[in-house]
Amino acid sequence: MSSPEQRVVPFASPAAAAGGPYVEESVSYDAILLAGFGGPEGQDDVIPFLRNVTRGRGIPDERLEEVAHHYRHFGGVSPINAQNRALKAALEGELARRGIDLPVYWGNRNWAPYLDEAVKDAASAGDTKLLGLATSAYSSFSSCRQYREDFARVLIETGLGDTVTIDKVRQFFDHPGFVQPFVDGVRDAVAAFLADGIAPEAVRVLFSTHSIPTADAERSGPRAGDELHRDLGEGGAYAAQHLAVAEAVMTAVAAEVPGADRVAWDLVYQSRSGPASQPWLEPDVNDAIAGLPAAGVRAVAIVPVGFMSDHMEVLWDLDTEAMDAAAEAGIRAVRTPTPGVDPAFVSGLVDLVEERLRGTPAGERPHLTGLGPWFDVCRPACCENVRAGFKPAAAGVAP
């Protein structure tokens, strides 16, 4: 691992370029860059979109069509773009309410509007000091580093790498604004089950998130040799962060709902897409649901804790397949809400922006788990993708 004096943070503001984990001095930004995953907005978009998502992996269209039916079921339209439009508007409203004069540019990794368009629009307007806000709360290659690689790719491909800087807000998995909507949803679901006479021991809460390859999970978070490295066990930072958030949610619900302290919970995974020969995080949400009757469970609350909004993995994998699994198992099921544009969540995102504007010391930053607050500048080799290898990445210490 490189020594601190050798560390390089490419494409960063001067405050972040030194490579320390926390930026504790005020930084003047010109704009916010809201970075999304992207999604098709019509039947003709579906296969081209999936080609973008899987670029470089050589997957034929015939196999992509196996995934395409999820989108085609909903008219070829993913809800994610509409949700990001709503989030952009909500952020703009909250920024204005607080008197923060920062425009919000929105760009996607895999579909229009693309990130390169957003960055070029910002630069054309003279907004060259950008603070990135990715629409993902946790640490892994696909939920953090890949966004940072796309930031760097765009700056290189557009020739703006010497002009534009992109920092990124910290991973916000345990920020109160992100966690509170999940607390509200679980509280309401559990309270309704108990009010209907279902015993706490017959209720289960399943916290669901996107499965990722086990090798990626093990490499999520700081690597051995970095000052922030911790042995977080199997699943690395990705699994540990989700487990910590689930525990925080259940602790809050137990304090509000009598009997909820006797409701058991589990972390489960969904949306696996890799070959059967490749290990991915388990258990699968549908397998977990199938096993609940044998444990005496009569009702289940399915919590999309890994997701910011109701995009396709929520609508299909949870609202369709998981609900079908619950019906087949003969148990009552409810899916709790995602944060979406919940006022607490939107306010929390702007809190994260203000942290960087003010240079809030790490010890004063809100967090609800022992893992936080997460760091501002990603650590060397953080969230490595061993299959694709390292690519240039913004907002973190190289590589």
Which helices and strands, and how do they pair?
Blueprint: H1 14-17, E1 31-36, H2 46-53, H3 61-73, H4 80-97, E2 104-108, H5 115-124, E3 129-134, H6 141-157, E4 165-168, H7 176-195, E5 203-210, H8 214-218, H9 236-256, E6 264-270, H10 285-290, E7 299-303, H11 312-329, E8 332-335, H12 343-358
CA-atom Rg in angstroms: 21 Å
- Count the beta strands: 8
Low-confidence stretches: 1-5
Mean pLDDT across all residues, rounded?
Answer: 95
Main sheet strand line-up? 2-1-3-4
**Helix-strand pattern:** HEHHHEHEHEHEHHEHEHEH
What distance lies between the first and last C-alpha atoms, to the nearest angstrom? 10 Å
| Apparent shape | globular
Helix content: 25-40%
**Contiguous helical run count:** 12
Largest sheet composition: 4 strands, parallel
Alpha-beta content class = alpha/beta
Strand-residue proportion: 5-15%
Looking at this protein, list some descriptive labels.
8 strands, 399 residues, alpha/beta, four-stranded parallel beta sheet, 39% helix, disordered N terminus
Q: Could you please describe the fold and organization of this structure?
A:
The protein is of the alpha/beta class. The protein is built from twelve helices and eight strands. The strands form two sheets. A four-stranded parallel beta sheet has the order 2-1-3-4, sandwiched between helices. Strands 6-5-7-8 form a four-stranded parallel beta sheet, sandwiched between helices. Strand 3, helix 6 (141-157) and strand 4 (165-168) form a beta-alpha-beta unit. Helix 7 crosses helix 9. The chain is globular and about 60 Å long.
